Amino acid sequence: MIVESLNTLIERIIEDRTLITGTLSQLRKKEGATYTKVGVKPVQLKNGLHYQFAYYTGTQVEHRNMPAESAADELSSLLGDTFRQGLLCTAEADYQVLISKKQKATVLTKPPTKKAVADLSHNRRKQYVLEEGEPVPFLIELGIMSDSGKVLAKKYDKFRQINRFLEMVEDVLTSLPQGRPLTIVDFGCGKSYLTFALYHYLAIREKRELSIVGLDLKADVIAHCSALAVKLGYDKLRFLVGDIADYNELDRVDMVVTLHACDTATDAALEKAVRWGASVILSVPCCQHELFAQIDNEIMEPLLSHGILKERFSALATDAIRAKLLDLMGYRTQLLEFIDMEHTPKNILIRAVKSGSGDSGAKWREYAAFRDFLGAKPYLERACADLLPGEAESRSN
Ligand SMILES: C[S@@+](CC[C@H](N)C(=O)[O-])C[C@H]1O[C@@H](n2cnc3c(N)ncnc32)[C@H](O)[C@@H]1O
Asked: Methyltransferase domain: from which residue to which, for each copy (predicted)?
């Protein structure tokens, strides 16, 4: 296992798409090694940006392409377990990574020596999933675009948000089940800009067979969204009135989306997603009040005595708890910036992809220590108690 700061660096340069090339060398153990050096670079494939790993053995080289989320894991594990040196080149800096015998990582930041490949950086940075100038029916109906495809000036932030969301979806396409229709639920869909965007992107552009359900408490909003789905001919998009916690209509759901659902409504959605074993969860939490009322810790008094700091800290701690609990329930969880802070402070997206279960004993102890330090009793832990290892089990691991 390598230190967190290196993992954070790797996640950031993969997530921000700034990695240009990487080289890993100096085997930790020569005996039994299957390759002696590994190179990595981004490649634009039909199904989005991937990372190409080149594994060198003598004069032979084997290539493997991986989507972003697997690429970050592969880099971390190669640097943690196999190699002692790495050079990660980005446009802003070269990062030289040195791993000691005790697996302590040192990262030296040096001036950049590489420039991003022009056409790839164009794809990475400028091209939106939905381009201005191409009329898209749902964007026209929602008043974001004119009939000619021009984005209305005051709707530009919304347009960027929709595109950012679709980029996040693009990155997890390969984690969704292939070869069968998908079932997707959007909890707390509200006016459903992003639900319509999801349908357009997956059903129309990607031609995936699917059905999407949007659920919300507000009957008038749901009636409006249903009428719009009919008008657009989105026949596999249904909108229902209901409370997330009571929604029991489906047996299997592949992806759960919950964007800005208030307070513990997000946790209710996460619980449903985990119980369905959804392959992908995308969640942007909103107005976290639960921990604000619970947190109590004398050492943290200088921070907690200021309402504004307590509120922000409670929100961050809530997301840290959610991420850890999702990890404990078999997900690989990342917290990503959804859109720039200047547009909304509600900008953290939890992206969780179903994976194997990890070291639940140590993870649980880490989680429980954090929770107890804060004096928190989180909804998600209470709701998913039967799916979590718990104190006794963690001690026996
Ligand atoms: C801030 S809006 C977000 C709407 C939309 N997802 C978006 O990101 O634009 C939050 C929505 O969640 C809905 N909501 C809150 N609690 C809910 C619950 N327990 N069950 C269903 N919907 C809920 C609200 O009615 C509201 O429409």
From this structure: 157-292
